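[SOLVED] Need 3D model of a two-part complex

Original post:
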Amino acid sequence: MSQGGRTKIAELLQSTPAGSEVTAKGWVRTKRGNKNVAFIALNDGSIIHNIQIVVDVNKFDDELLKRITTGACIRVTGTLVESQGSGQRVEIQAGDIEVYGSADPDTYPLQKKGHSMEFLREIAYLRPRTNTFGAVLRIRHAMAYAIHKYFNDRGFYYLHTPLITGSDAEGAGAMFQVTTLDLNNVPKDSEGHVDYSEDFFGKPCNLTVSGQLEGELGALALSQIYTFGPTFRAENSNTPRHLAEFWMIEPEVAFYELEDNMELAEDFLKYLIRYALDNCKDDLEFLTKMFDAELIDRLKFVVENDFVRLDYTEGIKILMESGAKFEYPVSWGLDLQSEHERYLVEKHFKKPVILINYPKEIKAFYMKQNADGKTVRAMDVLFPKIGEIIGGSQREEDYNKLRTRVAELGIPEKDIWWYLDTRRWGSAPHSGFGLGFERLLLFVTGMGNIRDVIPFPRTPKNADF
Amino acid sequence: MSQGGRTKIAELLQSTPAGSEVTAKGWVRTKRGNKNVAFIALNDGSIIHNIQIVVDVNKFDDELLKRITTGACIRVTGTLVESQGSGQRVEIQAGDIEVYGSADPDTYPLQKKGHSMEFLREIAYLRPRTNTFGAVLRIRHAMAYAIHKYFNDRGFYYLHTPLITGSDAEGAGAMFQVTTLDLNNVPKDSEGHVDYSEDFFGKPCNLTVSGQLEGELGALALSQIYTFGPTFRAENSNTPRHLAEFWMIEPEVAFYELEDNMELAEDFLKYLIRYALDNCKDDLEFLTKMFDAELIDRLKFVVENDFVRLDYTEGIKILMESGAKFEYPVSWGLDLQSEHERYLVEKHFKKPVILINYPKEIKAFYMKQNADGKTVRAMDVLFPKIGEIIGGSQREEDYNKLRTRVAELGIPEKDIWWYLDTRRWGSAPHSGFGLGFERLLLFVTGMGNIRDVIPFPRTPKNADF
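Solution:
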């Protein structure tokens, strides 16, 4: 495969022998020096570190050198030599330089001084050129790859569940409508309602909030599947934890009961975090230094501890007896807030916690009902700093129980007859969970705002780029 | 990781020693036999082959055995023994059987006899339980994994470009609108137009037709990126080649010129097809036997031949001089149809072809203009049977040329100022291409209809499940 006529800076810094004639291409981070020598810090995104280019000013045209400013893209051909003081093993003694594209210092928004995260969000189309977003995007890639590798190595099949859906049965949140009708002139039927027979799909359709229901169809045929795709919430929530468009991973496994599901979740999360520690060392060190001094320690905390398994009912008891002051109330039947989850993990157990057997009223209709008539076989995995990172359950595989629950909750059967049918024919015990990819990345990168772990965040009033 | 209390049938058939006590779980494909012995063919999706379960009828309860019909889900514990006549190395002598879920023979739609592809599309929620769709979905998984592995191993970063977009600049096709407005009561401004200030994003938004423009932003920061995500077309095309929702792979590489781009495309496609031949042997053999006798030969044809590189102008000349009868006209300036592409590949060169330097009028605005003023540095990769499988180009990196072309085509600058800006600051030569994932799967599986290579197809008037 072509390298585009260059050696990557990662390779130059790590393994190319000093003395080699090399070509590097990349973007100028800084240029400094004096009238005799200039030092250019060049980055190509292959690694967080820059390579230093040493330029004998007297050998180059003034006009060329003037065009080499922060943000410019250049080619440098020269000799890789051992470095005296660049902080790296090697640097390049420039022999020839070409400017592919300059960057006018009066207009280029990314000058060398630090910018606020808010400002960088406004120029999200340029922020991948910063150290911070380079690091975040490399880690994002590494985590996505590790997810595929984990499941592939274990015989799971990646199932592409649909994005556009005619069913809104899951009720996980407000949905975006997808339409080809002209909103300036919506066709109406004789009763004055929208005439969906003229819409593309012939009925109202939305963007999915979860691939789980279709994932179960896959698991009840192929045994082990996972989804990894975009999901959507049309909730008007302007918070550091909410996105309108985000990515989700949802494994679903036939013949799994809740215990198996917990084992999978713990093994999976530890694998991912170990993968980050092993493969993203430079980027994690940068983020630890710049943003979150406890980041690497927190990652190790997860890898090195067994996850506590605890009944919801026990968890509530611990919280009520803790004497701690919480903003939100604690009592049996209420959902836990992040502050409660973090108390259990950070203060009480000092380990990640898997909380199970939640009250059925606060969980989804498809969860398997326990014999007590009050709780379901739900599980939430709770982490330090962020609280819930995974939510899952054993699914109700009994046709009559599931159908009764659907009726109790007023979900129209016409929307999910196909889902119910899987319990009519060849039903089996099965379980699964959902991991929000950006939630994982908040944990792994230590970033504080979910808008800073996705390339182009979609939030209320914002769909730029 | 838990195996859910069973050994996968793939492992039982391939590597578990005869004589072992084993548990298998799966779905009954067939049951036959006589009053003394029953033979159950059991499948769990881990492999296309069934394992045979031999049941001594006299040792089991009649009522239990009656519930074991096609489609039922069962657990079998017993001894793995060498097989006499099942066509497999081993079979299971049943010691204990549990029925997880029966499948009423009067209602279960997937009886053992063959079903038409049309019928299976109507029950897409059940078709993963058939041999054909099991094979297709396993190959789909293998190809998705191979794509991620190929790019990861070569230092590309997986970039998640947005699905919801406020820009419709690419013009690759009709778009779906995404909205939270109430279509029964669309808010209007004082001039009677839709008041988008009340919509979720505060402006009209659509589902993306391509991640390329955002992909270029990534490449001009990280050097090598790829996208792999859903894309959408709201075209009212009811054909075996069109889906409203499909998946696309779009690598984009800084410092690549057209030659590098061609080399990447050829290497990438050969890698994927070799991966299928190496990893999906049983499924490919099944599809070759059942649907497309030339399938495996066609895959080998691609792997074993160098791709011809040819100017569009040369291609047109060959077609005009061929004496062949085509349905659609051939002349310089017209786009090629599938019949023309296939003629070049199958009849003339007998090799895959990369056609380059197309007339600029039939290609997108962002392609790099050649010095002749007439053509652009486009490339289409043409395959046997399906014609174009990849479309790509070197991108125009010159700010003024790109801006002029945008103006000529009447694209509003307000929609893509951010894209143009990448050519203002640190621009660089760069190239990329798009591979439709389902187009690839049509080629690799030999299926004739694109609705049969995606789990839940979305087409005009159809968004079921």
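Edit: The radius of gyration of chain A is 27 Å.
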